[in-house]
Amino acid sequence: xxxLAELQQRFRIPLAQLVGDDPAELxxxxxxxKPAQDAxxxxxxxxxAMPLGKKLSKPPREIATxxxxxxQIDDICESPEIAGPGFINLRLKQNWLRDQLDSVLQDPQxxxxxxxxxxxxxxxxFSSPNVAKPLHxxxxxxxxxxxxxxxxxxxxxxKVISDNHLGDWGTQFGMIIYGYxxxxxxxxxxxxxxxxLGRLYREVRQTMDYLDKQESLPEQQQRLAALQSxxxxxxxxxxxxxxxxxxxxAKELGRLKxxxxxxxxxxxxxxxxxxxxxxxxxxxxxxxxxxxxxxAVLQETAKLHAGDPDNQRLWELFLPKCRQVIQAIYDRLDVxxxxxxxxxxxxxxxxxxxxxxxxKGFAQESDGAMCVFLDGFESPMLIQKKDGAFLYATTDLAxxxxxxxxxxxxxxxxxxxxxxxxxxxxxxxxxRKWGFDNIEFRHVEFxxxxxxxxxxxxxxxxxxxxxxxxxxxxxxxxxxxxxxNDDRKxxxxxxxxxxxxxxxxxxGHGAIKYADLSQNRTSDYVYSTEKMVALKGNxxxxxxxxxxxxxxxxxxxxxxxxxxxxxxxxxxxxxDKERALAIQLLRFADAIREVSVxxxxxxxxxYLFGLxxxxxxxxxxxPVLNADxxxxxxxxxxxxxxxxxxxxxxxSLLGIQVAExx
RNA sequence: GCGCCCAUAGCUCAGCUGGAUAGAGCAACGGACUUCUAAUCCGUAGGUCGAAGGUUCGAAUCCUUCUGGGCGUGCCA
Length: 662
Fold this sequence. Notes:
Elements: H1 3-19, H2 23-30, E1 33-35, E2 44-46, H3 49-56, H4 60-69, E3 81-83, E4 87-90, H5 94-105, E5 121-125, H6 138-156, E6 159-163, H7 171-182, H8 186-191, H9 193-236, H10 243-279, H11 283-289, H12 293-306, H13 309-333, H14 343-346, H15 350-359, E7 363-366, E8 369-372, E9 381-384, H16 392-407, E10 411-417, H17 421-434, E11 440-446, E12 449-450, H18 467-487, H19 497-517, E13 525-526, H20 529-534, H21 540-556, H22 576-586, H23 588-598, H24 602-621, H25 630-653
Parallel strand pairs: 5-6, 5-10, 10-11, 12-13
Antiparallel strand pairs: 1-2, 2-4, 3-4, 7-8, 8-9
The structure holds one RNA strand.
């Protein structure tokens, strides 16, 4: 049951009488029925009389009156009231609320959420890390948002195929192969292959970075000097007297200065790091011996792609081990995929894709590369480099073809960083040109994770932050809070060390996920460890805590949920807080639907935070076990049961677990 | 240069594709534990929604311009 859908259904008839039954217009008018902004206006409001006033050139209040006259709603609402310019305010009837809750109580699995009428098939592409590199903070958003969307859309009734498009075929493997051939510690590889592969990757990376940076250092220093002299010149300029002109100069000066200081900082960071490397024994020798490492790595990669048996064998040796590392994190995060078809799965289809594009006249050679020129785009999409190698775009096209062949989806979602927006716009345009024009392609984009300084989140040394470390930090912080809270309990601590750790795991991982999901996905967001440590306010912990408080009531009162749902008791809604809680409970279906419209999980976190808040207010004012009368106690237990079920289900749709005790 | 995105309380952010007096969480201040977990609740304070125009009954939301920032921009992914 959706509250909103029910109300909209009732308004359909009187509105059709006014404007006819054009579905688009009707839908837009029905969209103007919303939860009331302010409780004093009632529970819901219909705002459609005002725009109709314009259209029908009658006073909106008059239109509102005629809508109400034809509106059959007295089983759901008190008689509607017209307010202000023509708002129609609706107040739900206690009896109706009670009946609705009673029926949800009989439906613990779906909590009154009916599967969508038209189920669609979705392919959701998310996470997609390079398997040779450790997961870092940048992977959180794609993984967590993608997983939540899978769960939510599935719950809504759609068919969902989650697919992790692993980067398992790129330069990273050239790097590891090179490392294996030159830096291998055989014993370490035998005993701890995964760790050793990680080390090899880092060794090669470091060597390549060193050469890159050393090479570009003079140029950067030159740029810094140039900036500096530009600054000096500008600063030495006498004031022109023209205010606007002076202001412009001052602004330019400020910009140059911040550019210079940023550049200076990065140079200093690098020189410090380089000095550290050079202090290592054998570093100079390393550089001497491997000064061609960058070309060599490309060569190893090219050989792999060309089917060289030695490199192929090494790749087959490494891949499972690399995937094992990543899988461990997915296990920790409780994220799973239906498919994990990486780039390697598509590599032998790429030349066919290019050939087809050429044959159909969609692609042509330009500057030696194979290009797809698309209307509305300044630059073409490259599908083959002049050296013959294929690109990201080529693989993505092959992937689309495979997915359509295999699953025939209505929609393919890509949960990827917003910076790849251009790429996806081109990819989608090319795919439509190719004939896939009845599929919804959607780049579900998200913003960057920033550090406290407002810049992309890095460690103090400028390194990318590893994901495992963040998870550990969140769990540690959660452990502190769990322990503190338990120690402070009125009747002494209740939890064993083991239980505390288990709860800390649930709370810590939940905190990370929730912090991400509660943000509007399109905005950048500032990741602050401090915020994680807090675990109060609008966090997963707050919601989990509400759940645990309910479970504590049930434990203390020895209440079995079955006794509440056998139909022998009826919910009563007398107290204001009970009423608010009841309405919030019935909005669950609407929250699920809203998330599905534009793939925005934060609408579900908003809902759950609202529900937990409603519950906390109820909890503060309405005793449950000690209620004045037995019927009230039973009724409140029923409400509690519905809240705990909704919180648990809602969090599970975000990939977040609950603990029975906290 | 061109394209996309952003600017809302001291901080971090919501604001449901135009609705009534712009919300929440942190942080600050003041209250509430002999009563189901105080990770909570109640209250106070805090805003020219970057600026200026426009569209209309009505704008944080839509349009234009400007300012400030981020990102992308032919052989990385």
